[in-house]
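Dear support,

I submitted the protein below through the web form. The confirmation email said the job was done, but the results page showed an empty box. After a refresh the structure appeared. I'm attaching both so you can tell me whether what I see now is the final result or a partial one.
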Amino acid sequence: MANQRGSGTAYYIGTSLSEDAMYSLVAAIIEETQLGSIESPDGVEVSLHSGEARLYEIVMNHNNLPLSYNRYELQPYSCTFYEIVDGGKWIELSTSYATRGTLYRHFRIFLLDSM
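What the results page shows now:
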């Protein structure tokens, strides 16, 4: 079910889907809405956000092992915010990670404008 609110659309799926069925559904929504998608390894979630002439990339490693993704070295269960600057260079702004159920944060400068 798709519900429109303002300029956005929310999709509600009222059932449990297999991985293949969920992939097919998401692929259809991406095609229908002409959204872009970001390929990432299993267990790695990536999102891009922009505003005020800035681009941010948020990378979450849901795996219990460190791994590499693009130019980043990801720690287990980490969430890292990057600002993309000057033709693809990046600045790490903030990293959070979980250890034995406790969330720890290592903050650098992180100012987020409204997006």
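Response: this is the final, complete result; the empty box was a page-load delay. Residues 100-115 have pLDDT under 50 and may be disordered.
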